[in-house]
Structure prediction request, 382 residues.
Amino acid sequence: MKHLLVKFFSQYKSLSEEDIKIIEDNAIIRKYQKGAILLKEGQYAKESYLVLKGCIRSYYIIDGEEKNTDFFLEYDPLVPISYIKNQPSKYFIECLEDCVLSIGKTERTEKLLLSYPNFIPLYRKISDDYSTNQLISTDKYRNLSPEEHYLEIRKLKPELLERIPQYQLASYLGIKPQSLSRIRKRLIHQK
Amino acid sequence: MKHLLVKFFSQYKSLSEEDIKIIEDNAIIRKYQKGAILLKEGQYAKESYLVLKGCIRSYYIIDGEEKNTDFFLEYDPLVPISYIKNQPSKYFIECLEDCVLSIGKTERTEKLLLSYPNFIPLYRKISDDYSTNQLISTDKYRNLSPEEHYLEIRKLKPELLERIPQYQLASYLGIKPQSLSRIRKRLIHQK
DNA sequence: GGAATTCATTCACCTAGGTTAACTTCGGTG
DNA sequence: CACCGAAGTTAACCTAGGTGAATGAATTCC
Prediction:
């Protein structure tokens, strides 16, 4: 599974044989089953993730209802806010499919960059890129109706619609599954 | 008007005659007329404010519509995000009444604290207190319906309802003035 | 003092999404 | 094969807020 991580890095830079060896030797790869919980509300996150295979959701519980805040697919980096801020998490993180994840820990990464300083610009590129791909991106969509938000997703991440059950998407959009059904029907019949 | 600033400080600590003189000698107090714009979208904020008298709103414009994000009354500190992050502002800041404001600038404050280090714990107290009173507090109320949000405000800041026009409050709640009228009517008749 | 704004209220009508419940489809399991 | 449970769809009815227009009240302006 390490080749998937190499593939991820090679999106950013062409890698030498040696680079590849370093990446493979230092990778921590873990597999999780569908339904596995990576982080619970109240816990401190101990690591961050890169999705190599599978699909993950983050959600919180309000008034007894789960509300999805984000989904992560292949090559999405998932850095829990709890990990950055070293605070108890407000969110749950759960695998929606069987997953293969690369594990990231700050101290480890820093040590690695000391040993292999030529990876530093690569890491900078990746983390710059990541800043556009935030956990909890609600802000951008605050002003959209659920229908508009749905259309945005269909435009920007059409694959997501094929991958996750509709009731999970409905929860993300802030509506009931029945309403998402209705929206989809509306869109079919009016176009 | 400087006595209002002294009054503000004395909420946090009992002040000696000398303290009072220092505060008064170093205060920057400015008056603004109703309707004055303190900061426009795109500008860099050059200072922060403490409301000594009057009422201020911050808002942004989306699809040609103004949306209020916050109101500030007497003794509310107003630190533009643009000032903290040194970024162009996403918000407008406008006086809803004639205002008397105390002006704060970081370098100036820091110089002052060097000369008068006994003010340092006082400043710490004030800025700790401020962190609970953030600009853009939308997050807390994201899950409330406009009606619930209105009830929250009536409970927590009832004075605000007397001070600002209802269409300004409606904009804050994310609804039209007619709908706020309707909500108020509903609340009167059902209780 | 009268006219013109501005703001709040009310009404009729519309639309989106919630609620409840019935029905279907499908995949898994005995 | 029959049954079950989960997920999606549909429908009837409800509610909140939007829209546009009319009315009233209060302020400001000449």
About this structure: The radius of gyration of chain B is 18 Å.
